[in-house]
Structures
1.
Amino acid sequence: MKNLETKWAIRLLKEHKEICWQHGINLTTPVINISSGKQTDGYWSPRDRTISISRHLIKTEPWDIVLEVLKHEMAHQYVTDFYNDADKHGNYFKKACKKLGVHPAFVTNKDYAAKIEDFKGKLPSDAKRMLTKVEKLMALGQSSNEAEAQAASRKANYLLNKYNLQRVENDSPEIKYHTICHKKKRIESIQQAIMSILQKYYYVSCISSHTYDFQDDAEYRSVVIVGKKEAIKVAEYVYHFLFDTAQTLWQEYRKKHKAGRGDKVSFDMGFIKGIEDNHKKMLESSQIELNDDRLLPVSTVKALVEQNRIKNQVEVSRIFPKLIKQYYGKHRPSSSAYKNGFKNGKNTHINKGVTTRGGGISGFLGSSGKG
């Protein structure tokens, strides 16, 4: 365990340096201590110039939260170095938090248990009701009746759009983020393609990044989803559904046509193009009045997505202040793999009929860690 804790400390020193670089701040390198207590998740000692991070925190919470705790303690270090320990959680500390991009939940002087709870957030009751309805409609997407499956998908899409319109009118909920990690060293073409679908139609922003796994002492590539908590839940479900479905369909195509690795990008792009065509049709059909509700014109839905994108971008900039624009790999639209992927995408309706994700959206309602 001691050997592993040494590796954690080394990783946290690397994270300290990365955070300083990302935010253009020059903090001296502190001593990192992995503490054994459970009462205090993090602590900055000006006298010893030591940042202590709880072993219990590292073992029980996602690495995203560990980093927010680290940044909170780095803010205390900043106050020591630049403001001569002027205050503990006052104005100077808040200025330091802003410079370091500390999440608002971790700027307060609440205990860490309360900070973590605020960071994770809670789903509003109306969001839970909406998600339950959407899940039931997605389940109908399994119907062998094509018209019934398409109607269920359109209604689910309509409810999501209607809910987001109501939330714009009623309040301005906090923007959250969630990390999905498959423990791989690279982002696959299908992941990049799915991220584009989520950004266009599911009120979230997506970034390919990296994260640390404390058990493996390894850095893996990851997908970060940013948005309202309820939007993240739907997007997370859709992500896993499309990822699992695309992987299954690709393996079937590869075996049948003896396709090579070079065909996978084309197949994935074709699959997502088919999925996107379905979404475009659902967007157009959102103008149809359902259950005597008001109309949702395409222009309104597009404006909603753009408004959410702008709000999400504030959080994206906080997490990734030096984000570089990301691009997809090359593919051949004329290839057999692309055309077959497109056909499969057109025939795919998002539902909960995936054996590995059989819990549907409800399976994600209580999740807060990495996928």
2.
Amino acid sequence: MRLIDTTTLELKSFWDPDQPYVILSYTWGPDGEEVTFQEPSRGPSYITDATRSKPGFRKIVKTYERARTQYSLPYAWIDTCFIDKMNSVELGEAINSMYR
């Protein structure tokens, strides 16, 4: 499972299904307004000003802040960042798993 560290914005992989994390899932905005899988996957130093200016980025930052302050959770999973919409198999699996 891939999660984002809510302090460093680094992408981390976990094999432990009991790793605690907060989930953000919401109605996706128009193309270009959301942060995509490709943007955070290279690491925090690759997050550009263009990414930071997207409305979806502000939602993500608020999720990180709430995860740390309200829930004391160091990691987050965010559907727009972790579902690769360019990969039709992964997208299909993710959508189907939402209805289980």
